[in-house]
Amino acid sequence: MKSSHVALYGVILLGLAGCGGGGDFSDLQAYMDEVRARPKGSIEPLPKFQPYEAFTYNASALRSPFQPPVKIDLTSRPKGSKEIKPDETRIKQFLEGFNIETFEMVGTLSNTNGKYALVNGAGGVHRVKVGDYLGRNNGRIVSIDEARIEVVEIVPDGEGGWLERPRSLSLKERS
Length: 175
Known about the structure:
Elements: H1 2-19, H2 26-37, E1 104-111, E2 114-121, E3 124-128, E4 140-144, E5 148-156, E6 162-170
Antiparallel strand pairs: 1-2, 2-3, 4-5, 5-6
């Protein structure tokens, strides 16, 4: 068995020796000559480093340039009244701690005691009735029907008086 291995190795060596014999390396030799002929200092210098300059955007509080400017006509602006003002002695209800925009009407209930509206917001669904307060601007519920809740808010007019501002929450239908 040993002699057969020696014969096999001999055949393999003869085959390998035949593969590399008489090869033409002229193209490789021409490339190497070209690389050696290049000037020694031909590497391009590194580009100059430009340090980062911080930028602070200062126009975030300005009007968006993509929205039309708001025209305020001071003469037609509603004037407040000294007679209208919120009741500061009244104990605040839970739903007055949230903005009215966070609430949406999701339904109504009625029984022998009256009609109630269901509003979603402030961490859950809440039952409200006419006379309850809703939102941060002293919003009092004045009417409830099947499709909307009518609220009257008392807001400052900016000149020491108070205005009554009507708002409504429409029924949010699930799709």
